Amino acid sequence: MIQIVTGDARPIFKQIVDGIRMKIMTGELKKGDKLPSVRGLSMQLVVNTNTVAKAYSELLSLGLVESRKGLGLFVIKPKQIFSDDERDHRMQQAINTFINEVIGLGFEQNEIIKMVQEKLKQLKDKSKQ
Amino acid sequence: MIQIVTGDARPIFKQIVDGIRMKIMTGELKKGDKLPSVRGLSMQLVVNTNTVAKAYSELLSLGLVESRKGLGLFVIKPKQIFSDDERDHRMQQAINTFINEVIGLGFEQNEIIKMVQEKLKQLKDKSKQ
Amino acid sequence: MIQIVTGDARPIFKQIVDGIRMKIMTGELKKGDKLPSVRGLSMQLVVNTNTVAKAYSELLSLGLVESRKGLGLFVIKPKQIFSDDERDHRMQQAINTFINEVIGLGFEQNEIIKMVQEKLKQLKDKSKQ
Amino acid sequence: MIQIVTGDARPIFKQIVDGIRMKIMTGELKKGDKLPSVRGLSMQLVVNTNTVAKAYSELLSLGLVESRKGLGLFVIKPKQIFSDDERDHRMQQAINTFINEVIGLGFEQNEIIKMVQEKLKQLKDKSKQ
DNA sequence: GTGGTCTAGACCACG
DNA sequence: GTGGTCTAGACCACT
């Protein structure tokens, strides 16, 4: 279901958060769907239950899921969480980090744009399925 | 000279590395130019000398500067450091991280592409000066 | 510095979050002030370091403090984090929970109002010091 | 009859307890009235029968209803259940929890008082009907 | 020394 | 069975 890559720069719990966030954004997980149980997912990914719990707690505070005690976590309709300022600020930071990472790699600007477009397109196609 | 932002996601030493790398890429620092001394830069940026030393050591291992004993660090013509595989892999990771960060922010794909293009254009213009 | 009450309904990490949030709101902790270290506070309160770390991580995501790696956590100027809708919704929930808790206790409405006013006044006075 | 809100901070059984307690306080349920059966209410609210049973058991121990074997639960005249100390202590805790929840939301003290008053007034009006 | 992440294993409240 | 909290102890990156 979710790919955990040990060589990834992101910590495991973040990979889980991103993985599920992506599934919600692409529509693979819809409003009202239940997330796998903490214990179930932790066994499946071969990580500690605490790690999954931490990821789930982040999804909770992101407002993407809600907890029904004794039942599990359920996807809810995400609202716009950030203010416009906050949103722009985060966007700028993400772009800066990205460019800084990429600028020394020797790609042409056209190539970079093309690759990003390609990735976004993949996502869009996936969400259409 | 270099902007250190405390709220930045990147650690300080990385911000220094990126800042100098950027100056080299844009031509602000040319082959043969001398970097500021560790002490000088650490005082200027108000950070620990260890932090600057770590940044410089990374620039050395990146092959962007060379050490002339007793004189300091000097910019050299950057060679292609990464193998093609390494290069592509880093690029893919950077893109993934970027998209993951941005996907939940609610921007349209066109907007994202436009913003990245804008940023790249700024850099290009700066390097032409 | 902070009072941990084992009989409290709130979990320990929440008590820490609330305690520090209160200190920030009342001005006892000002912008730029450093929080006690995770290990220091955990020893002082005789709780596990993870528990303090969890509290600090929540303060971080609340946007009340920022992390300077290797240095510690520092209070920042809190921005308005919630949208107006979100803010009102939380307020309504808090009032409902409060009233539900209090309604069966047999106090007069005047008494309840008076007690809340008293508590708010205490806070205000404390912040003026 | 009773509103169960999945997004509520309170567990379901507590929502049921509060809902019925409120109906007793406002006079909607009077002394001698019969509560719906566990099975009936659980079907009506679409919750587990255990959950309703737990709520009813709490109402019993609160002294708000009495069990007549084979007949069901009946509302009785609520006595003063808590000692004065207990009562004050619960009140203080409720106020603290409320203030902690509300303090970071950016409302003025006047606004808070006004909102609580408003809510209490609604309750009073409802009980007069 | 600082915070951040992870594992192992435990207990609790809820349904 | 579900999530939520806590302890104990470890390792890592950063300053």
How do you describe this structure in short?
The structure is a homotetramer of 129-residue chains. The first copy, chain A, has 129 residues and is mostly helical.
Just name the CATH architecture of the largest domain in chain A: Orthogonal Bundle
Overall geometry of chain A:
globular
| Number of helices in the DSSP assignment of chain A | 5
**Oligomeric organization of the protein chains:** homotetramer
Write down the domain tally of chain A. Answer: 2
Helix content of chain A: 55-70%
CATH hierarchy, class of the largest domain in chain A: Mainly Alpha
What's the total number of strands of chain A? Answer: 2
List keywords for this structure.
129 residues, two-stranded antiparallel ribbon, Arc Repressor Mutant, subunit A, DNA-binding, mainly alpha, homotetramer, 5 helices
In terms of topology, how is this protein built?
The structure is a homotetramer of 129-residue chains.
Chain A (H helix, E strand, L loop, with lengths): L11 H14 L12 H8 L3 H13 L3 E4 L3 E4 L8 H19 L6 H20 L1
Helix pairs in contact in A: 1-3, 2-3
The first copy, chain A, binds a DNA duplex (15 and 15 nucleotides) through helix 3.
How does this model look, in words?
4 copies of one chain form a homotetramer. Helices cover 57% and strands 6% of the residues of chain A. By secondary structure, chain A is mainly alpha-helical. Chain A has a two-stranded antiparallel sheet. In chain A, strand 1 and strand 2 form a beta hairpin. The mean pLDDT of chain A is 88. Chains in contact: A-B, A-C, A-D, B-C, C-D. The interface between A and B is large, with 40 and 41 residues. The structure holds a DNA duplex (15 and 15 nucleotides).
